[in-house]
From TrEMBL:
Source species, domain of life: Bacteria
The protein, known as: IS110 family transposase
Domain (Transposase IS110-like N-terminal): residue spans on this chain: 5-162
A biological process term (GO) from this entry: DNA transposition
Length: 407
């Protein structure tokens, strides 16, 4: 008898339901989120006919967590059902809007019973790929937090200390650069900046890691910080300086996290067998390549073809047709992390790779805007990457862009 399992996940407990091929409820139970609860789940599955040769598939609304990790260790099929899709299925069984944890567990089991072929199993990625996913996502989150902290600090400085922003406007990372953070730490207000001497600024630059042109840079910063500007009232200015130091501490922590995680993810990615293939593509380095691998994984059976990868990445357009209405737009439901990495990848490739640049310009001449042209380039590149990863070959410019004509 074919059995399907649905688990409604919660923080402290989980509701489990087993249904047979006809939709009849075979068993139900609430288990705790601990080893005893997991053992209870395994006993429940075994009593329903679960065997290593024919494991009972499981549907759950999350792809992560200790319960999912323990279930994956049993080598059984696990389907992570998107909560939005699950909400649509809920309406098939009740139009009143009622909801319960047990009913959701039954609904998830019935999703497998009727539509398992329309949902994708959790990929069977290697442990190394799983570790890269954790580190790459953490580094990406840290980068976003750094940008947020930097923008908050910049907004505050704009209100009372614009000359500081002007003094470091030519730095690659502006106020997030080590030099700008070191100087702001000793001069958080215009009054403090006016008392700075060149030796103190030079010492701050050395602490930030600068080794060349320190005296000249210190003199330039000193003059820039003493430029005339509008001022807040003294007590208000002092309070804003205290606020700036608090935001600076957050920014320092974010910058440190970005650097530490970048080193960790780079070391892990360089050990992966797909490293040489991914980094052979223009625009993909260790960090951006690790982000792409983190979202695609290394289970080559995960995607049926390149079209599935492109849809998952959000680079392929989506068509909406109803009656006489027809529209082709970009996808909004996608893997946002992969789409963000793809944007950086396409932008970098369009500036460093002549064939990619020609492809981008051709799309612009065709009428695409900048985002649409980059998305089209990303669509082409990720299709080529899928082919290279499947066939175990590195990037070949002549095959990726056969129409390219060198100038």
């Amino acid at each position: 008898m074919t059995i399907f399992c649905g688990i409604d996940w919660a923080e402290s407990h989980h509701d489990v339901a087993l249904v047979d091929a006809t939709g009849h409820l075979v068993a139900k139970r609430r288990i705790s989120d601990d080893p005893a609860g997991f053992a209870e789940l395994l006993n429940m599955l075994a009593a329903a006919g679960d065997t290593p040769q024919q494991p009972i598939p499981v549907a759950i609304e999350t792809p992560r967590g200790l319960l999912v990790a323990a279930l994956r260790a049993t080598r059984r099929p696990i389907y992570a059902i998107n909560p939005m899709a699950a909400a649509r299925y809920r309406g098939r069984h009740s139009v009143s809007g009622k909801k319960s944890d047990h009913a959701d567990a039954v609904m998830l089991a019935n999703i497998l019973r009727t539509d398992a072929h329309l949902h994708r199993q959790l990929p069977d990625d290697s442990d190394l790929a799983g570790a890269i996913t954790v580190l790459a996502r953490a580094q990406q989150d840290a980068t976003w937090r750094r940008s947020k902290a930097s923008n908050e600090l910049r907004s505050l400085l704009r209100e009372y200390f614009p000359t500081f922003l002007a003094a470091f406007a030519d730095r690659p990372a502006t106020i997030a650069s080590p030099e700008a953070r070191a100087v702001l730490a000793i001069a958080p207000t215009p009054e403090a900046a006016a008392r700075l001497t060149r030796p103190r600024i030079a010492a701050a630059l050395r602490r930030a890691g600068r080794v060349r042109g320190i005296d000249a840079a210190a003199e330039t910063i000193k003059r820039a910080l003493r430029q005339p500007q509008l001022r807040q009232r003294p007590l208000v200015e002092q309070a804003m300086g205290t606020h700036a130091l608090a935001l600076l501490a957050v920014l320092d922590t974010a910058c440190t996290s970005v650097d530490q995680l970048a080193q960790a993810v780079t070391e892990a990615f360089q050990q992966h067998p797909d490293h040489a293939i991914i980094t052979s593509f223009p625009g993909l380095g260790d960090l951006s390549g690790a982000r792409v691998l983190a979202e695609l994984g290394d289970d080559r059976t995960r995607f049926a073809d390149a079209r599935a990868v492109k849809a998952y990445a959000g680079s392929a357009p989506i068509t909406r047709s109803s009656g006489r209405s027809l529209s082709v737009t970009h996808r909004r439901i996608k893997n946002d992390r992969l789409a963000a990495a793809g944007w950086i990848w396409a932008f970098s490739a369009s500036n460093s790779c002549p064939p990619a640049r020609e492809h981008y310009l051709r799309r612009r001449e065709h009428g695409d805007g900048h985002p649409a042209a980059l998305r089209n380039l990303f669509n082409r590149l990720i299709g080529c990457l899928h082919h290279c990863l499947t066939t175990r070959q590195t990037y070949d410019q002549n095959r990726a862009f056969p129409a390219f004509t060198p100038s």
